[in-house]
Every structure is written in C-alpha cells, then in structure tokens.
Design goal:
The protein is α/β, with parallel strands linked by helices. The protein folds into two domains: about 325 residues, TIM Barrel; about 45 residues, no CATH class. Helix content is about 25%, strand content about 15%. It contains ten helices and 15 strands. The strands form five sheets. Strands 1, 2, 3, 12 and 13 form a five-stranded parallel beta sheet that branches. The protein has a four-stranded mixed beta sheet with strand order 4-5-8-7. The two termini are about 20 Å apart. The structure holds 2-acetamido-2-deoxy-beta-D-glucopyranose (NAG) (3 copies) and zinc ion (ZN). One 2-acetamido-2-deoxy-beta-D-glucopyranose binds next to helix 4.
Amino acid sequence: MNKLFIFGAIVVSAFAAPRPGYEHYEAAEKCDPNVCVLPYCRCSSTDIPGDLKPSEIPQIVMLTFDDAVSIGNIGYYRTAFNNRKNPDGCPIQTTYYVSHEYTDCSLVNELKANGHEIALHSITHEPPTTRWQNLSVEEHMLEFADEVTLLNQFARIPRDDMQGIRLPFLQLSGDNSFQMIQNAGLKYDSSWPTSQYLWPYTLNFSSTQDCPIGPCPKSSIPGVWVVPMINWKDNHNVSCSMVDSCVNIPQDKEGLVEFMVRNFKQHYEGNRAPFGFYVHAAWFARNPVYFEAYLEFIDYLQKHQDVYLVGVQRALQWVQNPSKLGELEKSWPKCQEVTGNPCKPFACKLKKGEEERYMTICGTEEDCPEVYPWLTNPLGREKYVF
Ligand SMILES: *[C@@H]1O[C@H](CO)[C@@H](O)[C@H](O)[C@H]1NC(C)=O
Ligand SMILES: *[C@@H]1O[C@H](CO)[C@@H](O)[C@H](O)[C@H]1NC(C)=O
Ligand SMILES: *[C@@H]1O[C@H](CO)[C@@H](O)[C@H](O)[C@H]1NC(C)=O
Ligand SMILES: [Zn+2]
C-alpha cells in the first residue's frame, strides 16, 4: 500500500504538484555540482570534496562491525582498539551497527565510553531479506527510530549520538529506509554497495551510484547522506561488500595482510575515498588467523602519517568541511570524548514471549524493562499501547 502511494506520487509529480504529505516523494532531479554544494549538499561523485588533491588530504579509514555486541565479541574490540591513536593524537575510533537481540547494553556503553561510534542495525534483524525489501517507512521507524529509544534507555547512549544505520542483509527498499532516516532526524545510511570509488553524498538530487542489490532510492530525500560501501575485490577479482563475504582469500596471515593492503591501496593511491573495512566479529571466531591479520593490517595503516581511523560520523564531518593535512582541526575541532568509564551493568531476567531471556542494561534492578524489548515495544513495558 505504501509502495503504491510512492509510485503514484512519482508519476504524479511529473505532471502536477505533489499531494500534501507526500511532498518528499518527488523523483529526484539531476545533480548540478554548482547548485548542490557543501556542507549540506553533495552530488554523487568520485571527485574529492573541496577540489583538493589526493596527496593533500587524509586517507580516512572506517572500521565497522555489525550485529549484537556481547561478551562473545567485546574481547576482540578491546584487544584491537584500546590505546591506539591517530596521527593527530586523538584515539582511533570505530563504528558499531548494533542489532538489539542478544546485545549487552552495558558493553555498548563501554564502547561509547572508549570514544567509539554507536549506530543502528535494527531491533529484530529478522530474516528473510524480502521482509526488508518490502518494509514501509513506518515499519523502518519501528526498527530504527525505536532502537534509538531502546539504546538511549538501556545503554545510556545520548540520542543525538546515534545518527547512522546499516540495513540487515544490506537489503534496500527503494526510498523507504532513506525516508525513515529523514523522518527520524537521523543522518546517514551505509548499506548501499558500489564498485565506484564514490565519496559520501546526499540524496537532495538523483544518485549516479550503481545498484547491485536494489531497489535503490529514486526520490529526492534532502539532507540524508549515503556512505557508499565501496566493494573490495577478492583474490579472483570477485567483488565483496563485507570482507567476511569475500570468498577467494588466502588462509595464511601474510597472504591475508597482502589482500587487505591491496584493497586499501585502491583508495590510498587513487582518489582517497574513505576506505571501509566492514566485517562481523564472527569472522574472527571462524579462524584465529583472520584476527591476527586484522591486527597486523591496523599496525600497517598506523605507520602512515596521513591515515586516520575514524567513525563514520567523523568521516562525514571531514567531507562536509574538507581541510588539508596539517590543518585538520578545521574539519575536526577536537577529539571525540573518551571517558573510559562504562556504566554499572545489571542482568535483567525477562520474558520474550514464552522464552526466558537475560538482558544486561546500565543501571540497577529498578531500571530493568518488564518484558524483553521488541518491535513496537522498545522500552519493554508489560502493558503497552500501540
Ligand atoms: C515482497 O514484494 C515482492 C514484490 O513486490 C513480492 O513478490 C514478495 O512476495 C514480497 N515478500 C514478502 C516477504 O512480503
Ligand atoms: C539539501 O538538503 C539540505 C537539508 O534539507 C538543505 O539544507 C540544503 O539546502 C539542500 N541543498 C540543496 C542545494 O538543495
Ligand atoms: C585482477 O585484476 C587486476 C587488475 O585489473 C589484474 O592485474 C589481475 O591479474 C586480476 N587477477 C585475476 C586473478 O584475475
Ligand atoms: Zn547484520
């Protein structure tokens, strides 16, 4: 029903003023880089923001992880990232696309306290992918905007600090998830794979990005940023958006590091579009050599004085306000806040339907939800109204 409305509005908008309430569902116009200018507009393009040369700018690296944050994977994050600094002296930063089920909220709080970025990956993460392909704007609100409420309440993450989403299974739904980002006051999506070396851009105007797993957005959705997932190439040149989905990769540490470095150099020796290392911690559990190679690759990155490991929000700050190496404080005024003081955890014993579930939150027993938080009930109230 929602899809029909959108389709109808696109067709209608070519001939008449859009209907009230659907004014955003206008087919996007071609992007003119003289009109669409930073900091609030950018055309989809491989051009470097600010017309700078590759050698003048930092190579931004975005290390991200998807899915539940739990006692099963926090060890990897602590080992890999604690006590590492960027060339400007700020701690390095990574981004976590957190899904709610099985997440330990006190560990999400710990990541935040160590300066990392918390982003959204839905409350349910429920298969099949076709569910996500067909999800309406309203249903996306329940999965993502309500996840902000949930993580704010139980992980004590300030609402405004959560600005980005990654869709489960990277399954886009045309305009819908992007329209939700705008409606919910969020900022960016990082779910859309590409084989072009695109810099992040906004959806004010139509995108030129290739669309390998559609449907892709077609409407103008002003102010929403796309952080493209630039594909890696495995050792048989097969594209992969998440590194753990690359098939033809070596199984020894040296070979793996070479594979990572080769993909990094596509950016570093090219237009320096932000380089993403997108992976699930579950990959490290598959074979210990993957984690050893990952650590060695981060060591390699950190040997470069022009390589910065930052969260996606901070990457966007640079894109919106590009500056040269040596004057990066013009883009990044100060280090992200690191308190190193996580919250006090409490394990709540709850019901999820007939099942028993523990959920660790920040706080005391009084702060526990009454039932396991879920879709339409992010605060886990026993008797809630729709
Ligand atoms: C999603 O939509 C497609 C086409 O619109 C349809 O074929 C499919 O059955 C739908 N899937 C679900 C899970 O609703
Ligand atoms: C793009 O959208 C943002 C957010 O609505 C707005 O501030 C900016 O003026 C828009 N730019 C153009 C050129 O449409
Ligand atoms: C992959 O592509 C690169 C560059 O296009 C080429 O040099 C290399 O030989 C290719 N490798 C394979 C296995 O096809
Ligand atoms: Zn996931």
